[in-house]
Each structure stands twice: as structure tokens, then as C-alpha cells.
Amino acid sequence: MKASVVRSPAPIDTRPLEFTEVEKPAPATGEVLVRVHACGVCRTDLHVTEGDLKPKMPVVIPGHQIVGEVVELGSNVSSFAVGDRVGIAWLRKTDGTCRFCRTGRENLCERAEFNGWSANGGFAEYTVAPADFVYALPENFDDLQAAPLLCAGIIGYRSLRLTGIEKWNGARLGIYGFGAAGHVVIQIARARGAEVYVCTRDRERHQALASELGASWVGDASDAPPVKLDASIIFAPAGELIPPALQALEKGGVLVLGGIHMSPIPSFDYDLIYGERVIRSVANNTRADGREFLIEAAKVPVKTHVQTFGLEEANDALIALKHDAIKGAAVLVIDAAKNKY
Length: 341
Fold this sequence. Notes:
The protein has 9 helices and 17 strands. The protein has about 350 residues and is α/β, with parallel strands linked by helices.
């Protein structure tokens, strides 16, 4: 099968992803083999490709926002059938026995595995995944619409939940960085009755999209919103945004850091967190996050804005992502039954 693989992580502008032929995987016990139709491109894929995340495999296929069709079942799989359309997200597997799993916090599992990092992911024509960690997808999302929901959507949803905005009537939510996750979260937040204030540096794409999606105010990444905010989420991997984001928070406000990797955080005065302001990070997701989010996204309904690339264009997609040249989310279009490379 064809795949885009990382052998030696390097800056994306050097085009380290290799489009090549690799062995087609076979499903083990409890797994399903999926023919990939589409795979969203996430900033975490960029961190894997550039080596910001320490390699877990000598050669890895990135990608963890996978939409496809089940084409083969491993033994002991009864939850899906051949022909089912499914989604595969970041969290691949947990041990189910560690103290985090036993207390409903499987996202913090001490022996978790992750698609596209510690196991091969969806920048390929086929992939395998444990059936227990695969999602049935709502029918009202086509493949391209569904792909960004499987990480940008799920992690954005978890980030939004951790802000606690539901406890404030007419909450004021800030979003810093307005890519794939931000453009999903604003739709969920507004459907819940929140006002959304967006700080992002790209005027042509990100600021324009934020305005289209109903932001109450849009400014540059470091601009101060016109009102104090009850909560904010930083999706941009930029530690320097934390002090201005704290400065914009009301007393008792919550600042959620929604990325897996962030540049160094500068020191700041205690005054910025005094008044019971809270900073917290988001780590991975639980399967419950995914199931709950997909139900709510279908009800809103969330509409994702996508820019498509071919599987052989994975480097181009990640270059565009790094340089803020994507309006919404990037998605690789992959279908071994249709595409002939």
C-alpha cells in the first residue's frame, strides 16, 4: 500500500515525509482493518514529523483523524461489521488497569498508545486499530467533514469542557489561535449561548473565518479583548500567549492550554493568576469525550471548513499548516479503491 512515512524527523520545510510503498497491515485479535478514505492533518502530526515529540518508532506513519471503511475484522470483534464507516482518533489503546484508567481518566493512562506516534496512523491507504477505540460516525457528516472532528473536534471539546463555561450565563470565551480546533469550538460554544472573542494572527484566513462563524470580536494574537473573559483556550503552541491571555481573564477565570506541545512560557507576575485564576493543560482524550462530542456536533450541527490534499502531498499540507495557510482544517483525501498513484 502507499503511505507517507517519517524516517528521520526534521523541519517540515525540508520535506521529511517520504511517499512510498509499505506493507499493508493485518488486523490482530480485537482489531479492525480500515481502508482510509480521508485523514485530517493536525499540528500534532507536525510535532511528530519535526521531532518536537520524541519518536516512539524508528519509522512511523503519522495521522490520527481517520475516516474510512472496515474491510476486515480480527478475531473477537463483534462491535463492527465489514462495510461500516468508522472514525479513528488519537487515543489508540490504554491498559485499562492503571490507577488512571480505574478512576475514569484513561486519557492519562501510563501505558497508552497513540495513532500516528506510537503506532502507525492514517497517512496511508490502510490502517488497523483496536475496535474498542474506534468510533461509529454520525450519518450527517461526510468523510471530509468528519475527519477534523476526530482530533481538532474532540480535543477542542475536552478543552471547552475544562473551561467550565456552562456555569456562567452568557459566558465570555476567548480562543487564541484559530485553526482546526478553534473553528469547531466556536460553533459548540455559540450553540451553548457563549460570546466568543478570538485572538489570532492571520487576518486573511483565520480572522475572516472567525468573523464568519459569529465571533463577537476578532483581534491579533496578542491584542486585549474589549471585555474581561470568563475563560479562554490557547490552541496555538505559543507559550508567549499565556501572560496576555491571563491578563484578559476575569477573576476566577480559567485558562486551558489545548496543545500537546508548546514553546517555553515566559515568567510573569503573580498578579496575573491572583484572584483564583486557573491554568490547566489538556492531555489526550477519553473515549467518552469522543462519543459525547460527536453527538453534540451532530445536533448543532458543526460545519467544518476543509482544504484538501492528496496523500502524496502530506508535506505540502504540513507546510501550509505550519505557516498558517489553512483556512479551517487540512484533510488528506485517501482511498485505495479510487486513487491510483
